[in-house]
Each structure stands twice: as C-alpha cells, then as structure tokens.
C-alpha cells in the first residue's frame, strides 16, 4: 500500500580520498599523520537537502598485505600504526561504510601503502700499499690519499641517511704509516659498513760507513808508492750499506788524487754522505801523514879496509864492509 505523505528515501553517497602511498623512510609520526589524514577525509553526502535521521559511519581494515581480514578489524578515525617501522613494507585496505535510518547504504575502500625502500649500500676502495720511496714529500702522499679516500661512496641511500667515518681522515706520514677507515651508514630499516686500509711502508734509512781516521809519523812509508797505495785502500772503505730510496753515497766535493809524497806533510779530510726523501747519513774521516823533509847527515866518514888475502876473494869480509856502508854513519 502507499500512504500519502510517506517519504521516498534519498540515496546516500560516500566521498573517498585517493589511495595513499608513503616512503618507508618517514618517521613514525609522519606515517601516522598520513593515515590520520586519509581517515579524516572519508565523508558522506546526499544530493538533496534531506533528513534521513542519524548516519552511522564505520571504518574497518579489510586487508593487510593482501590477506583478507575475516572478520574485518573495526577502527576509528584516530587509528595509529601498532608498530613501526615496517621495513618490509605494508599495505592496508580501509573500508568506509555508512548507513542512515532509512537503511540507505554506501561504502568505498582505499589503500594505505608503506613502500619497502631498498637497503642502504656503501662501496669502499681496495686497501692499498705504497712505499715511502713513492712520495717526494707529504703533499704527494696527501694527493694519493685523497684519491683513495674518494673511493668511499654511498651507492644506495633512499632515506638520505648520513654516512660517516669512525676516525678523522688524516694522511699517514709519507715516510711510513697506515690508517684503516671504517665507513658506515644507517637508516631506520637498514645499515651498511665497509672498511679499507691505506699503508705507506717505511723503507730502511740510508746508511753509509767509512774508515777510521789515519795519522802516521814520518818514515812510516818507505816510498811515495807505499803512501799512495795506503791512501787508495783507505778510500775503498767509504761505502753505502743501505741506499734507501736514494742512489747511494758520494763524496762531498772533489776527492784528491793519490799523488802525495812522503817528503812533505799532508792531510786529506773527506765527507761521504747519502740521502733520500726521508733520511740522510754521512761519515767523515781524515788521512794524514808526517813527511820526512830533513836531509840525512853523516856523523862519520867511510873507512878504507885492508884484509889479508884468503885465496877465495875475501867475499865475506867484502860484503860485511858493504853492509856497514864502509863504516860510514
């Protein structure tokens, strides 16, 4: 039957926001704010100005990560995420439904997604070893260190996390040293850490040796040749034991030739040295001699000698006379 004055129900409609997708990099407060904004934008309306009594609004979670919730989970508009972060991502389907006293019904579903961002990832340079001979000075070592240090890179960093070293990045001494750096990064869902070492080997210091200083009195050498041979042999005792990063030792200044005489005093002082980019060494020695510059003086003249003939030439007596310089002194 149709009764005059009975109202024909007017259809109710729902107004639903767009699906929401946020990055897993967001802090928990930002994620909950995004959910709150989504839920607060569910609403209903009529196309006519009518009063069909109280309208009941219901919000439920009907799916979690593709799994249908049976029964659906009833929530209110103040819903917040029960745990955080969701490092594997999250997808929620919210259903909004309304019914008025005229049993007019409408509903819609919208999804809320937290994107599973990739893990942070770092790269490091290979550990490298140099010799102290490779660098002329500290600036050269600094340049090599800077090139190596640039090999530490952030390759994947969706959340803009700050990567950092564990210690200050200081170049080792160019004459020898090492530094090991640990580079790390962490966001709310992942972390990474790499390590590498920069080494400069401390090569041996240069080392030179030389003879003891020599000083002789007059008449020590019986002739010039003996003196010159002694000097030449003395020179050979200057030598390089360890070249280090250099070219070996050398005399400072000109080395006098072996043309000295035993008839006059003489002294030769030599410095033998070696150096490289990180060390130096030297040795000094003197070769000196006292010359015999006093002419000989005869204290007695030679003497004639008369012997009785022994029939054999008096050989023994003759040689005795010769050996005594004719008795001259």
Write a brief caption for the model:
With 329 residues, the protein is mainly beta. 14% of the residues lie in helices and 36% in strands.
Describe this structure in words.
- A hairpin with a 4-residue loop joins strand 12 and strand 13.
- By secondary structure, the protein is mainly beta.
- The protein has helices at residues 28-40, 138-149, 224-235, 315-323; strands at residues 12-15, 20-23, 43-46, 56-64, 67-75, 90-99, 105-115, 121-123, 128-131, 153-156, 164-165, 177-186, 191-201, 207-209, 214-216, 239-242, 250-251, 266-275, 280-289.
- A 5-stranded mixed β-sheet has the order 2-7-6-4-5, with helices on one face.
Mean pLDDT: 92
The main sheet orders its strands as 2-7-6-4-5
Largest sheet data: 5 strands, mixed
Low-pLDDT segments: none
Number of strands: 19
- Order of helices and strands, N to C? EEHEEEEEEEHEEEEEEHEEEEH
Compute the gyration radius: what is it?
Answer: 53 Å
Silhouette:
rod-shaped
Instruction: Tell me the helix content.
Output: 10-25%
What's the N-to-C terminus distance? Answer: 178 Å
**Structural class, please?**
mainly beta
- Proportion in β-strands: 35-45%
Number of helices: 4
| Assembly category | single chain
List the helices and strands and how they pair.
Layout: E1 12-15, E2 20-23, H1 28-40, E3 43-46, E4 56-64, E5 67-75, E6 90-99, E7 105-115, E8 121-123, E9 128-131, H2 138-149, E10 153-156, E11 164-165, E12 177-186, E13 191-201, E14 207-209, E15 214-216, H3 224-235, E16 239-242, E17 250-251, E18 266-275, E19 280-289, H4 315-323
Parallel strand pairs: 2-7, 9-13, 15-19
Antiparallel strand pairs: 1-3, 4-5, 4-6, 6-7, 8-10, 11-12, 12-13, 14-16, 17-18, 18-19
């Amino acid at each position: 039957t149709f009764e005059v004055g009975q109202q024909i129900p007017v259809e109710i409609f729902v107004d639903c926001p767009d699906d929401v997708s946020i990055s897993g990099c967001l802090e928990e407060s930002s994620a909950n704010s995004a959910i709150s904004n989504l839920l607060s934008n569910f609403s209903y309306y009529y196309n006519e100005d009518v009063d069909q009594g109280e309208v009941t609004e219901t919000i439920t979670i009907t799916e979690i990560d593709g799994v249908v919730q049976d029964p659906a989970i009833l929530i209110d508009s103040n819903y917040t995420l029960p745990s955080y972060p969701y490092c594997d991502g999250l997808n929620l389907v919210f259903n909004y439904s309304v019914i008025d006293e005229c049993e007019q019904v409408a509903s819609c579903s919208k999804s809320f997604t937290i994107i599973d961002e990739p893990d942070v990832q770092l790269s490091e340079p290979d550990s490298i070893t140099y010799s102290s001979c490779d660098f002329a000075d500290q600036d050269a070592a600094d340049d090599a260190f800077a090139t190596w240090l640039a090999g530490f890179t952030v390759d994947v960093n969706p959340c803009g996390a700050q990567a950092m070293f564990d210690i200050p990045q200081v170049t080792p001494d160019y004459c020898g040293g090492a530094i090991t750096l640990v580079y790390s990064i962490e966001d709310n869902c992942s972390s990474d850490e790499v390590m590498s070492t920069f080494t400069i080997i401390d090569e041996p210091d240069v080392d030179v040796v030389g003879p003891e200083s020599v000083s002789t009195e007059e008449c020590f050498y019986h002739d010039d040749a003996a003196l010159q041979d002694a000097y030449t042999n003395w020179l050979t005792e200057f030598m390089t034991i360890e070249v280090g990063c250099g070219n070996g030792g050398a005399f400072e200044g000109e080395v006098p030739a072996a043309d000295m005489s035993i008839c006059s005093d003489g002294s030769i002082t030599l410095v033998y040295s070696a150096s490289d980019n990180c060390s130096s060494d030297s040795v000094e020695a003197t070769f000196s001699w006292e010359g015999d510059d006093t002419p000989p003086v005869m204290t007695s003249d030679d003497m004639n000698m008369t012997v009785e003939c022994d029939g054999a030439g008096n050989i023994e007596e003759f040689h005795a006379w010769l050996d005594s310089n004719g008795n001259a002194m």
